[in-house]
Specification:
Elements: H1 2-28, H2 34-43, H3 52-62, H4 68-82, E1 87-88, E2 93-94, H5 95-130, H6 135-149, H7 152-165, H8 186-223, H9 226-233, H10 238-244, H11 246-250, H12 252-256, H13 258-276, H14 281-290, H15 294-322, H16 324-330
Antiparallel strand pairs: 1-2
Length: 331
């Protein structure tokens, strides 16, 4: 198991190295650089003529005159050795400060969504498979089709409309007005947990529908295997039989797609955040690209990618613990 863990850890590190190169290349793709944007914002409408020499001085001031490979080494070295993601040109402070609280709020939404998805999907799907053709099983099918057909942003709009028109309140944002700018405390943390429910429901909607069908189908397949029939013939209690054999294997597809679910949540979060007014990283990422504030954009892309790769790593470890065959094949 230690060798398997080390192998996957090395794979994760190598993956992040190549990802960092790709992200830095993306940062270099837009035409021009922040010197052009800085000069335009500072001198636009003043009648001051900007020469190429002036632009070059601005590039030297921001360190943009150096070769790309040298800036990459400084950037990745600062991240690995000091946890410093570089300078935000637009905000004139560290990119760490700009991302700051939004990163932790984005992660709070992510993990709340994942927990809700698996807490709902796994036990309900197992129950539906055991009680096949029951009312619960048919209801599961209807809910799954709705979850796959109804876009998340539309569900967010529906919940927002109902909360305002029926309950005369709003489900938008992640904090109540009293805690929005208050320092962190236990009361603010509890307020955040209350406000995480709606975003988690919206983002977990389609993933739960998909995982319900996945676990149910796998569970039905495992229930029909000879190993289950033999265990039942030996007099093993039904609940113990279900947990030890079919249920344990039925959640393998769920565990193997954790990284996919994280990627999907990050992809769907910006538009859901726009509807619900959530302070997350998607809006800041777009603004950073528009402003050519590339170290902020690169930091956000690198952090989001890191958590996708990290959850894939966690997925591999969990699969090895659930199914020893995977560990042996991986070794």
């Amino acid at each position: 198991m230690i060798a398997f863990f080390a192998q996957r850890l090395v794979g994760m590190i190598v993956t992040m190295f190549f990802v960092s190169i790709m992200i830095f290349a993306i940062m270099e793709l837009p035409p021009g650089d922040y010197a052009d944007r800085y000069a335009f914002r500072k001198f636009s409408g003043t009648g001051v003529a900007i020469t190429e020499s002036d632009l070059e001085n601005i590039r030297i001031e921001f360190g943009l005159d150096r070769p790309a490979w040298e800036r990459y080494i400084d950037w990745i070295g600062g991240i690995v050795l000091e946890g410093d993601f570089g300078m935000s040109f637009a905000y004139e402070t560290s990119a760490n400060n700009v991302i700051g609280e939004r990163l932790w709020l984005t992660l709070a939404i992510l993990y709340a969504t994942l927990i809700l998805t698996y807490v709902l999907a796994i036990p309900i799907a197992i129950y539906a498979a055991v009680r096949r053709h029951s009312a619960v099983d048919y209801g599961l099918t209807v809910v799954s089709y709705l979850g796959l057909a109804l876009p998340n942003f539309l569900l967010a709009l529906i919940l927002l409309y109902i909360s305002v028109s029926v309950f005369d309140t709003s489900v938008g944002g992640l904090f109540s007005r009293d805690y929005e700018r208050a320092p962190w405390s236990l009361a603010k943390a509890l307020d955040l947990l209350q406000h995480l429910i709606i975003p988690a429901i919206v983002l977990a909607w389609s993933a739960t529908a998909l995982q319900l069908q996945t676990v149910r189908a796998t569970m039905l397949d495992e229930l029909n295997k000879l190993s289950v029939t033999a265990a039942r013939a030996r007099g093993l209690p039904e609940w113990k039989l279900l947990m030890k054999y079919p249920a344990r294997l039925a959640i393998n597809p769920v565990v193997s797609t954790i990284g996919f679910d994280v990627n999907r949540i990050f992809s769907e979060l910006p538009i859901v955040a726009l509807v619900l007014g959530l302070p997350e990283l998607g809006e800041l990422l777009i603004k950073s690209f528009v402003d050519l504030d590339m170290y902020v954009a690169g930091a956000i892309l690198l952090m989001l990618t890191f958590f996708i790769v990290l959850m894939n790593f966690v997925s591999d470890i969990l699969l090895a613990l659930l199914d020893p065959r995977i560990k042996l094949e991986g070794g």
